[in-house]
Amino acid sequence: MTLQELVNRRILILDGAMGTMIQQYNLTEEDFRGERFADLPGLMKGNNDLLCLTRPDVIQDIHRKYLAAGADIIETNTFNSTRISMADYHTQHLVDEINRAAVKLARTLADEFTALTPDKPRFVAGSVGPTNKTCSMSPDVNNPAFRSLTFDELAEAYTEQMTALLESGVDALLIETIFDTLNAKAALFAARQSMEATGIFVPLMLSVTVSDTGGRTLSGQTLDAFLASVQHADIFSVGLNCSFGARQLKPFLEQLAARAPYYISAYPNAGLPNSLGKYDQSPDDMAREIQEYIDEGLVNIVGGCCGTTDAYIARFAELASGARPHVPARRPQHLWLSGLELLEVKPENNFVNVGERCNVAGSRKFLRLINEKKYEEALSIARRQVEDGAQVIDINMDDGLLDAAHEMTVFLNLIASEPDIARVPVMIDSSKWEVILAGLKCLQGKSIVNSISLKEGEEKFLEHARIIRRYGAAVVVMAFDEQGQADTFERKTAVCERAYRLLVDKAGFDPHDIIFDPNVLAVATGMEEHNNYAVDFIRAAGWIRKNLPGAHVSGGVSNLSFSFRGNNYIREAMHAVFLYHAIREGMDMGIVNPATSVLYTDIPADILERIEDVVLNRRPDAAERLIETAERLKAEADAAKAAAADGVVQAVTRSQQSWREGTTVEERLKYALTKGIGDYLEEDLAEALQKYPKAVDIIEGPLMAGMNHVGDLFGAGKMFLPQVVKTARTMKKAVAILQPVIESEKQAGAASAGKVLLATVKGDVHDIGKNIVSVVMACNGYEIVDLGVMVPAEVIVQRAVEEKVDMIGLSGLITPSLEEMAHVAAELEKAGLDIPLMIGGATTSQLHTALKIAPVYHAPVIYLKDASQNATVAARLMNANARRELQAELDETYRQLREKSGEQQVKTVSLEEARANRLKLF
Asked: What is the reported pTM?
């Protein structure tokens, strides 16, 4: 019986955590290395996947325990078995061997248990993790367009892993712990490549991890937006894992189960982690929460993530016995698009505005800004369109003097760091195929490609269509064919029908993902053959909606009024008239200016009549009459526009500055940081400098207060990570403005207060909080040596010696960082160093520091709750007597904590505390 057949009959049991089980074996560095890898550089302990080669007996024993507990599906021990993740351990050359060995270990045990109970077949899922890098976000807060990993690099690494998994005999591929949808799309792309190359096709399982109480991924997407992003793939199941316990995960699971047209999986953590990063929830306690999943029909597959063992899986298997599985939701019967949020294009939506101003061919200002690399100002154009009501933004970089593919990549990467813009879908607009491809590799959401056509024939058309579908985008099809542009109703409908049949029947396109542009062409040009262009488009729109089920109709509306360039009122009035009639016939999308001020109902009757005469081709002299009207109105319109413009600008300015009226400078700075607004920082900081004795007081006072407010909002789920990144950039900008003052104050005062080395430890890529620490300490006169993220212990030790630093600050967000920090401390001790160590980050705690880090290092080890404490502690460390006093205080505090922890159970961190800590991200 296959996995597909069995999932409809009963709830299937997935195994539990591999890492948690491995920890129970108390393996040493030598166990991980074995004799074969004795000379590999770096630390191998923690490279769990390597155990498939060095301690296969342990991995098989874990598989055996899970199967005996009742698991129907066991995962291969390959979560990190890509060249990208394995590069941290210098074992990327072993990827193929590890994956094949892992499958063999799991396959042998699964087949053994199936032979014992043929009526209960056991399956092997190839585990594919997210890697330790993200394609959607920059690791450099100062350069949001930078990416440490490209889509192509990630897809290539995934293809290598998946090919080995498929050829070795997995029953399914499980792409799990997805925190960035662009990473997941690269995995889906690679899965398709690998299956086609090997001829082996297996079910695709996806599992997402949400990172905040708002139910978004770490890269900022909602679950609905995620579903839109991956709906192009042939998915077997989708689900949630990690991040939360079963109780906290349930609301998001309900949301997913209600929307996803796939089987649903769930494998939560064993509750929330305690202050040591451990999981205290018992199998019985977790089983009571999982029982709700089963009773309410939310799942088809259930298992466990961090903290779970075979004891948990045995309880789940008991619960699932005889229970009815979840019935998948119906596939959406309309177009789904997404940025960070979902856009559903339903009939009742009436019309989708596609913002037109980020187009170098249509906006001289946007072209100038891109040419001059003034990206911040260019982004403001995109932001204004969204604020004005654009539900999709069109991006076009096609200009002879631009490297269009490069500029498309840079701008889309920048948009990804602007949540106010990135929340809406993107239309990648280009006539160059390489530019379209570049754009598709940047977007985690479901975008629109504008456009493809039949002008190069069916073969090229289908080739491009299949690639677009593989990247998960909808497509605009221009009404062109080998004969050229379709200009009449008959040609438009014939070309669109032919393209529709090719896309649906041969390229496998969902009809709802097809958007036809039957060519909006200029009218009133003085050429008689152009007079019926608008009528032909409107008629074609109606025909397409009636005869090509599911397809949509769009168009570049500004083309219509090309003959009236210079007369904006007439142009906007023509657009309003055209849209009024085209929308009634079925046009449901359009590239327009969302800020247009002319409404159909506001056009005076005499002007409306003359415009409709042109648009609907109602009389032969319609163009002449409209030109006459346009000339008569031009002087009046220009005068009126000039008079009104001043009032409008003043009104807009008043509206935009309302948050600044009647407020203190502290309130304004807090608001600016929260919203990521840098426009008034110069003005407000100048005022603050008159109020505060020193520039550093502003940073430690109102600016840090603003960042703390951001932390509160983030912890409450009212902000998500891209927004927090944006506030960090605003903080950086504020500090840069204050820097000359800080330097002058330094010159007037003492020399360097000391040298501090900062690093995010190996295995962790988060450094926003570390950057804030850097700013605060630099402002207090300390010289900063920032090693960045993913820094191995040996590098930290080496650079600390070379730079002769006075103290070291270690940061980390994720739970594995705790163990790595202890390892760094031990390496500092081995090196005979006496440099104080400061510990900070969302997962760190004073208790963990007392129990795991301080005992392995004789020098002061200080846990710091937030960035504002660093400068005060550093000052004590730089004074010999104060350092001795601090060391004595720490020794006593840590002694009491160790004694207390031995007497009572470690306190579980609450959901609110866990979320609130995430702002620090260091």
From this structure: 0.83
DSSP state of 566: T
Neighbours of 322 (CB within 10 A): 7
The whole-number average pLDDT for the span 438-455 is 97
Q: Which of 72, 394, 588, 764 is catalytic?
A: 764
Please indicate whether residue 61 is annotated as part of the active site.
Answer: no
Reading the block at residue 83, the tokens are 């060249």
d(CA 898, CA 894) in angstroms, rounded, equals 6
Alpha-carbon torsion, ordered 473, 477, 481, 486, to 10 deg: -170
Catalytic residue among 207, 817, 845, 868: 817
Instruction: Note if the bond before 451 is cis, omega within 30 degrees.
Output: yes
- CA atoms of 595 and 614, how far apart (whole Å): 24
List the end-to-end C-alpha distance of the chain, in Å, as a whole number.
48
Examine the residue annotation and report whether 817 is marked as an active-site residue of this protein. Answer: yes
- The pLDDT value recorded for residue 922 is 29
| 766 is an active site residue | yes
CA distance 217 to 214: 9
3-state secondary structure of 768: helix
* DSSP code per residue over 35-88: TTTTT-SS--TT-GGGHHHH-HHHHHHHHHHHHHHT-SEEE-S-TT-SHHHHGG
Half-sphere CA count of 99, side-chain side, radius 13 A:
30
- CA 299 from centre of chain: 26
Nearest Cα to 71, choosing from 312, 419, 370, 430? 312
| C-alpha–C-alpha distance, residues 117 and 115, integer Å | 6
Bridge partners (DSSP) listed for residue 352: 589
Confirm if 615 and 581 have CB atoms less than 8 A apart. yes
Catalytic residue among 766, 774, 786, 866: 766
Q: State the pLDDT at residue 595.
A: 73
The DSSP output letter for 505 is I
CB hemisphere CA count around 867 (13 angstroms): 30
What's the mean pLDDT in 881-894? 94
Q: How big is the CA angle at 442 (ends 438 and 445), to the nearest 5 degrees?
A: 125
Residue 917 has pLDDT above 60, yes or no: no
Amino acid 729: pLDDT = 75
